[in-house]
Amino acid sequence: MPADSLAPLDPLGPLAAARRPMGLRERKKLKTRVAIRRATHRLIADQGYEATTVEQIAEAAEVSPSTVFRYFPAKEDIVLTDEYGPVMADALRERPAGEEPLESLRSVLTRTAAALLAHEPEETRRRARLMAEVPAVRARAGVTTAGTSRLLAGVLADRTGRGADDLQVRVLTAAALGAFGEAMAYWAEHDQRDDLVALVHRTLDALGGGLTG
């Protein structure tokens, strides 16, 4: 796979400026992850989620089943995991120093939603549908989100001078990512007719202001 074929899975557009250059080893690992994810999405599009096996994914991606499991501990992780966590952390780190933490998270999450739709539209739509339709995928979503939550919480702790394990930082970050996930679920449950970025704004408004209006 040529290096430039990774471009659609790099968080470009609104988040590109925050992306740190990758080393050769990191790019090789990313190529493998991308190959596995693309193979998975092709198979799911052709035959459905339940009928798609790890063995089929490995064959389509030209890797071994053990390699698939090394990168993705569960099949659900393949459709839920993306490459945006570190980029989101970098983007959060670049927000203005005096900005309210929730507003910093809002900026990063809405830009992430826009980038997903711009650069991975079909994968994003399929992932949202699977979260809404497949109980195992929805159940696993919390596990895959936890890693991103830890990354963002670490950045917020640094920005606010709090400890890395500060409870308020953890709660705020987890709540914001939970709001993002609920926006995705609502979007899928309503046939993806709504503007996803606007839905993310609405969920974060609810988080900040409660049930008003």
TrEMBL record:
Q: Which residues bind DNA?
A: 53-72
Disordered, as annotated region: 1-20
Which superkingdom? Answer: Bacteria
In alphabetical order, the GO MF annotations are: DNA-binding transcription factor activity; transcription cis-regulatory region binding
Instruction: Print the keywords alphabetically.
Output: DNA-binding, Transcription, Transcription regulation
Which PROSITE patterns does the entry link to?
HTH_TETR_2
Boundaries of each HTH tetR-type domain copy?
A: 30-90
Which InterPro entries does the record cross-reference, listed alphabetically? Answer: Homeodomain-like_sf (IPR009057), HTH-type_TetR-like_transc_reg (IPR050109), HTH_TetR (IPR001647), MftR_C (IPR041347)
**Mind telling me what this protein is named?**
TetR family transcriptional regulator
Q: Which organism is it from?
A: Streptomyces lavendofoliae
